[in-house]
Amino acid sequence: MRSLHMSTSAPAKAPTPEQPGSGAANGALDRYFRISERGSTLPREIRGGFATFFAMAYIIVLNPIILGSAKDVYGNQLDNGQLVTATALTAAFTTLLMGVIGNVPIALAAGLGVNSVVALQLAPRMSWPDAMGMVVLAGFVVMLLVATGLRERVMNAVPYGLRKAIAIGIGLFIMLIGLVDSGFVSRIPDAAQTTVPLQLGADGHLNGWPVLVFVLGALLTLALIVRKVPGAILISIVVMTVVAVAINAVADVPSWGLTSPEWPGNPVATPDFGLIGQVSLFGGFSKVGVLTGVLFVFTVLLSCFFDAMGTIMGVSDEAKLTDGEGQMPGINKVLFIDGVAVAAGGASSASATTAFVESTAGVGEGARTGFANVVTGGLFAVALFLTPVATMVPSQAATPALLAVGFLILANGIREIDWADHTIAIPAFVTMVMMPFTYSITNGIGMGFLTFVALRLAAGRGKEVPAALYVVAAVFAFYYLMPALGLT
């Protein structure tokens, strides 16, 4: 998939006319990062690093809200402050790693979409350490696929239209999560005996200050995107948090969701590393069984796999790091670091970490090397000490970002599906709608793959289906038949 983090900044612009390699960029720093060689300068790299950070810093707020709102099978919830620390720490570490070793201006952080998989599919079936262990295993699989040269082959086995459909389905899914977590829509209790599963607000109407904050935040976010304002999502979160704090100070607010938006007495605090290393690699398999566990790992793997691949190639192409054939020299090193990032995200309980397409904001400022990542990673490290500020943000001020991200994913992918070929269009449609309608990314992927194989066989085009997809479809078919066979 292209990415779960579509850029809200203006299109990349040509670097300002500075002399490459001027000033402090000369010397060891310039040689190591190849700053002059790539036609950049140290000031451009620094500006690019700042631009990328401010374009993606919203994840420090959103990731804890998504993970912190879920409970594991034992009813445990992750601490919001610890999640802020885990999110910022992993983003800092993996972004620096990609910059220093991969030498590309591609920043990384916890991925939207895969954190929903962890929160809504894995955790309800096992403990949090078990769920994060499966994320770590997915990272190991990514590294293994890169080391054996199979990553690109596996990606090529899935038709392009289905890859886009997976991304769009996740976009629709996280849009629904945003609507639910904000309180804009809610589930109608079974006692109501109605066929309508969702309703506006808590009682069929939009009532209360918190919902107003969400509505205003959604309008502000989308307006900033229309205006192509750099950092639109982060600006909206900051503005609406200030509005929420003001409302909370003067009005009677019965509920703000996860947090009460009161300005902290001290915005700086020591990071809480309590979640780091809380992982059980294989404990989840004893809870859900081997087949279901493998499918869960596979779902996390797919959620990261195409997201990172598309983002890395897209950003590197925009940064002019690709050759005449559209290939990026040294991409396997970059892809391997991406696998390390997935595993690191699980090990820190931040969920899988992946490449952010918001890196194009930095590229637009002239970033061409990994030094921009050093700047971005350093800013994430500073954010470790601002946990009180991040945890004060109410969900109603942050969840409009999920609507914006979902729209951008849809807009960037829907036109690239071949709607004239029904053997692709119908499976793509099934994939997209089943994710939000079943509240499961796994179901969307599984039903999409099964539909694709069935329709290609029905059309007499079975030879066009890669062998790997037959295997995956068979596994999903067995997974869905397990209850009927008495195997669950």
Q: Can you describe what's shown?
A:
The chain starts with 27 loop residues before the first helix and ends in a 7-residue tail after the last helix. It has two domains: 23-417, no CATH class; 418-488, no CATH class. The longest helix is centred in the middle third of the chain and has 29 residues, at 290-318. 60% of the residues lie in helices and 2% in strands. Helix 2 (42-56) packs across helix 15 and helix 12 packs across helix 13. The protein contains 21 helices and four strands. With 488 residues, the chain is mainly alpha-helical. It has a two-stranded antiparallel sheet with strand order 1-4. A two-stranded antiparallel sheet has the order 2-3.
Question: Features of this protein?
Answer:
two-stranded antiparallel sheet; 488 residues; disordered N terminus; mainly alpha; 21 helices
Order of helices and strands: HHHHEHHHHEEHHHHHEHHHHHHHH
Task: Kindly give the count of domains.
Answer: 2
The major pleated sheet works out as:
2 strands, antiparallel
Q: Residue-averaged pLDDT, rounded? A: 86
Question: How do the strands of the widest beta sheet line up side by side?
Answer: 1-4
Assembly state here? Answer: single chain
Total of DSSP H or I helical runs spanning 4+ residues = 21
Distance between the termini: 32 Å
Topology summary:
Elements: H1 28-33, H2 42-56, H3 59-68, H4 80-102, E1 108-110, H5 114-122, H6 128-147, H7 151-157, H8 160-182, E2 185-187, E3 198-200, H9 209-226, H10 232-250, H11 283-288, H12 290-318, H13 331-347, E4 353-355, H14 359-364, H15 371-383, H16 387-391, H17 395-398, H18 400-413, H19 422-438, H20 441-458, H21 467-481
Antiparallel strand pairs: 1-4, 2-3
